[in-house]
Each structure stands twice: as C-alpha cells, then as structure tokens.
Design goal:
Oligomer: single chain
CATH superfamily of the largest domain: Galactose-binding domain-like
Strand order of the largest sheet: 15-14-13-12-11-20
Number of domains: 3
CATH topology of the largest domain: Jelly Rolls
Largest sheet: 6 strands, mixed
CATH architecture of the largest domain: Sandwich
C-alpha cells in the first residue's frame, strides 16, 4: 500500500498522517470552525493512515444528516488495454456494511468519488480496503483519501440525499461487464416543489438493444438508464418511482438508506427493482446536469475515458467487426468507434423517421441505418447517431447531413423538423473531436434530405 503523503499545512482539510492526537485534534478544531462557520462544502478529512490490513483509514467530522463525498486518489500505471478492466475497493463508514468503489484501470482516471451518508453528528471513521469480490489489479494503487461534507440545506445535499444506492446484478459481480460507470441528476423546479431524476450510465447491456442498433439510434454502446425519480414539496417526498423491467415505471416501496432508495439491478438490460438484495452495492455521486439543450450522450464527453472503456468491453465480447456478413450475427457487431462520424440534433417527427448520412470523397454514401428502416431514429428530442465510414473518417468526409424517411405504415404528409447541432469524430485517444458543422434548423418532408454546412477548416 502506498502511504498518504504529508499534508499541506496551509490547506484546511488536507491529509494528516498518523501523527499525534494533538495534531489530529488541531485539524479537527479547524474543520469544525469551517463547518459551523457557514462553509457549504469542504474537505472534512482530518486523519488518514494505513491500516493493519493494508487498507486506508481516515477520520472526519459532520453535522447531523450531512451527506459526504469520499474521493479516492489513485496512481494508475496500467496500459491503455489492461489485463483487467475493473478493480474494486470497499468503503466502510464506522460500523456500516459498506459498499464498493469501482476503479477502471488503464483509463488514466486519477480520482474516483463515492457517496457516504446520511451521517449522525460527530466524528466518523471511513476505511477503504481491497474488495474480495473482484481480482486485485497490481498496476492501480490508492494514494490518498479526501472527504467533502455537505450540510443539510445546501444544493449538493439536496442532489445527494435522494441518490439511489445501486445493488449490482449477480452475474456482474466480480466480472467486467455492464459496469455502472457514473451517474447524473436532473432537476425540474415548479411552484409546488422540485422533481429529481437520477440516471446511471453502464458500460453496456448484455441484453436488449443490439450493438449496431445502439450506434445507429443512440450513437454509443453504453447503456444510459434513468433509474429513479422523486418529487419533493416542503421537504417531503410526494411521489417516487423507478424504471422497472420492460421499462415500466413503478411506484417505489422498497428499502432505504436515509432518504435514498436501494435499487437492485435485475435484468440483462439493467432495469432495476425495489425488492430483493444484492451481494455488492455502489453509490455513484450524481453530477447535476441540464439536458434541455443537449443529448444524454453529451454527459460522456466530459468523461472521455468512457469511450475507451466501452470499446474495450466490445472488443472483449467480440462485438467489433469492420465487415460482417448479413447473417444473424450482423446486428450484434459493428465497426470500431474510431471509424464513425457522430451526429447530434433535436428532432420533431411527424409520421416519419430520421437518419444521418455521410458522402466520402470517392462519392460513396454511408447511412446511420445501413438502409434498414428499423435502425432509423423514431423518437423526438435530442438524439445522437453514428455513421460508420472507415479508417480516418474526418479526412475522407466530403459532405454530411440528415434525411427524413416515411415511418413504417405511415400515411402521407410525414415530416422531420431537425435542429442539427453537431458532428464530430473521436480522436486516436478516444476523445470527442471538435464540431465540424455549422448548426442549423430545417424541416424536411418524408423522402427529402439536407446537407450541413462545414465550419472553416473543419474537414469538409
């Protein structure tokens, strides 16, 4: 185990090594003054030391009902294609059973966050030990811990106190598939109160939508699932539901940790239930986002490591193929992520479906739906799609655009209102590249298409 480095005495809440009780008390008093002096959130870690079992132990203080974020700083020396794509450490606060903190070797991530709380007032101990549910990964080492405490009444406390505790599907524990990568929350504010929606992004789904359809209709192979929604008025929960099997919304009536629901991932496409118990739980820290003018997939762009990880999972499961025969295996494979052009737009469809297209410099046309209508986009709102073009797609692109097609069994008069906002490719490092089209809004009749104007020096 790598011992924590000495604290910066000029920074409140820095790490304190296993020094004297006087040193720890001095920092505890400073933290207490900051907490009760009105600080909304701070690093409340007041002591850290290596435990006898090779874990890391820390002490912090909190007010009654506070939520906290445990931040684990690691050294990741793993290669980009690691021998194992996940490692796990178990976080325990005081005498609670604890939960898993999943690490993703080879992604280059230096910090992993996990929720703890709600907490009673006083002094608490958090301990991080290697989980016995996943194989250890030697090229990832924990370097330090920090705890940021959020008092009741602050915005982040509001976000965190309802964030679901997610118990993992049994066949994913100890494995490297369908991993919960991160979470985000959305908030709707009305006169009667607030509604919070919580979404978890998984590395893939072992059942449900095939790979090629995921890329054509959603522009990714991660699985993005809204798992829980709660309405709050006058500090009381007035309605709470979760997304159960078959995407059916159900009223929540299960266990809680504080005010947070405990949900169990129960299906191969990562739907949840409010009954039963899992052998391992995670508590991702939801980022508060506003997606009124953006796609759900855009949350991945702030975490580009997700693209590399989802591609590694596809490779391990044999779901990458540049040229696949049109047989029963064709839907479950697709070309690699670097060979695609990605499109984003807001759609309003009337008896129609929409598809994206690319024309290369040789005059060839490539379509997001591969000429198959079931792979076209048939929903309104902000969407992402991907068109497989081949190696080095940006330099081969001559023109890109959108097309409107009549929906299956639709009558005449179909149309697509398209607000095209973005087109990009992934770099060799699996990072989203710059937008190379000028945003524009237009209406197409079924059977019509429109090319997009390229930005200067954008590759078109």
């Amino acid at each position: 185990m790598v011992p924590p480095r000495p604290p910066d005495r000029g920074r409140p809440g820095g790490l304190v090594g296993p020094g004297s009780e006087e040193e720890q008390a001095e920092v505890a008093r400073l933290v207490t003054r900051l907490v009760f002096g009105g600080a909304v959130a701070l690093s409340g870690l007041v002591a850290a030391a290596c435990g006898p079992d090779g874990g890391v132990r820390a002490v912090f203080t909190a007010e009654s009902g506070a939520m906290a974020v445990l931040s684990v700083t690691v050294s990741d020396r793993c290669p980009p294609l690691p021998p194992q794509r996940v490692a796990a450490w178990r976080a325990r606060v005081d005498d609670t059973p604890g939960h898993e903190v999943l690490l993703f070797p080879g992604t280059g991530l230096a910090r992993y966050d996990s929720l703890i709380g709600p907490l009673p007032a006083g002094r608490h101990t958090v301990e991080l030990t290697a989980s016995d549910l996943w194989k250890p990964v030697a090229c990832v080492a924990v370097q330090r811990l920090e705890v940021t405490v959020h008092r009741a009444g602050t915005l982040k406390h509001e976000v965190y106190r309802h964030a679901p505790v997610l118990e993992l599907r049994a066949d994913t524990i100890g494995e490297q598939t369908d991993l919960p990568l991160y979470a985000y929350a959305e908030r709707d504010v009305a006169a009667a109160g607030s509604t919070w929606r919580y979404t978890v992004v998984f590395s893939n789904e072992d059942g449900g939508t095939p790979t090629r359809a995921l890329l054509a209709r959603w522009g990714r192979t991660t699985d993005i699932e809204q798992v829980y929604e709660v309405s709050v008025s006058a500090n009381r929960m007035t309605r709470e539901v979760f997304q159960g099997p078959d995407h059916v919304t159900r009223a929540f009536a299960g266990r809680r940790q504080g005010e947070a629901p405990v949900l169990l991932v129960a299906t191969l496409n990562n739907m949840v239930i409010d009954r039963g118990r899992g052998l391992a739980a995670v508590r991702p820290v939801p980022a508060l986002v506003d997606l009124r003018q953006a796609t759900r997939e855009s949350t991945m762009d702030a975490r580009p490591w997700v693209y590399r990880l989802m591609e590694h999972e596809r490779a391990a499961e044999g779901r990458i193929a540049a040229d696949a025969p049109m047989d029963e295996q064709w839907p479950r494979v697709a070309p690699d992520l670097l060979s695609h052009v990605y499109f984003e737009a807001r759609l309003r469809l009337t008896r129609a479906v929409a598809v994206a297209w690319v024309r290369d410099r040789a005059g060839r046309r490539f379509w997001s739906h591969y000429g198959r209508l079931p792979l076209a986009i048939d929903r309104d709102g902000w969407v992402r799609s991907a068109v497989a073009v081949g190696a080095d797609p940006l330099t081969s692109v001559a023109e890109v655009g959108w097309a409107c097609l009549a929906a299956p069994d639709a009558g005449p008069g179909g149309s697509c209102e398209i607000e095209a906002s973005r087109a990009f490719v992934l770099t060799a490092a699996y990072r989203p590249g710059a937008n190379f089209v000028v945003p524009g809004r237009f209406v197409l009749k079924a059977g019509e298409e429109r090319g997009l104007e390229g930005v200067p020096a954008g590759g078109l």
